[in-house]
What we know:
Helix 2 runs antiparallel to helix 6, helix 3 (35-54) crosses helix 4 (60-81) and helix 4 runs antiparallel to helix 5 (92-109). The protein has two domains: 2-145, no CATH class; 153-299, Jelly Rolls. It contains seven helices and eleven strands. Strands 1, 3, 4, 6, 9 and 11 form a six-stranded antiparallel β-sheet that branches. Strands 2-5-10-7-8 form a five-stranded antiparallel β-sheet. It is 39% helix and 24% strand. The chain is an alpha+beta fold.
Amino acid sequence: MKILITALLCGVPFFFYGGPGAHGRRSFVALWDLGHVFYFSLASLWLYKYFQYRFPGHSFSSVSLKVFLIVLFLGVSVEGLQMYSGDRSPDIIDILRNQLGCLITLAILYPQKGYKKIVFLCVVLVLSNVALIPLVRGWTDEWIARNQFPVLSDFETGYEVDRWKSEEKICIQKRIVRHGNQALRVQLTTDKYSGISLEYFQGDWRGFRDLFFSVYLPEDDPLEIVCRVHDSAHANHYNDRFNRKFLLKQGWNDIVVSLEDVENGPRNRLLNLAEIQNFKIFVVEQEKKRLIYLDYVYLE
Length: 300
């Protein structure tokens, strides 16, 4: 038990520091998140053994309820403390992962044999498979992305939408398409900045000349979009990245961005084409909500 306590204490700092960061590989991010399940599975084991020792006459149900509630309290406390950490933010899904770790331990320790234990184990197994979905999706799309490259996203698989981040609603659809059978529908809002960001992709763009992407504008009212690209050394200000405006007209707009221009985008340095970290399309302070469709993002 001393080894278990030591392992649990050593794991505490990782709730507040470390990890894959904002641009880590999706599979690594998903695997890191599953650390909540593993940690609180071990914590539940220690708590269960502790209560068994302190209250030997208590039933499994009584001890399990204590363990479950303590894990819930600890999980909520950790997420609350993360608000004061510069590297973390609270996430209710992490609390659910903590409780899953607790349930896994309790299912294994369940003393009775027969259908009740089988049902308990089956429920926990189903929940565990649900928790594994982000990891499986990450691994799958990373494999697809490696085989697609230099296509960065063509939206021909449902996994590809996970490569993109947006505060607005985005979805893959088949009605308006430039290449293949599917494209991405992007709802833009009236926020100061509204758009979509490619965050998971092959980031070494050396040896390529241009970046291509197609945007469909369904309305006849023109729309100005901004294309930005930054690398891993980005200092998070306008003059340290590539920015360019494009005016969209109704219908498909096939846009070409020179990677030489991207490389020379920052004012005081060359952008590192070997470590591209983000490609974003956005609009600024629109008077009304706008709709665009994105398709066939690739290098040539």
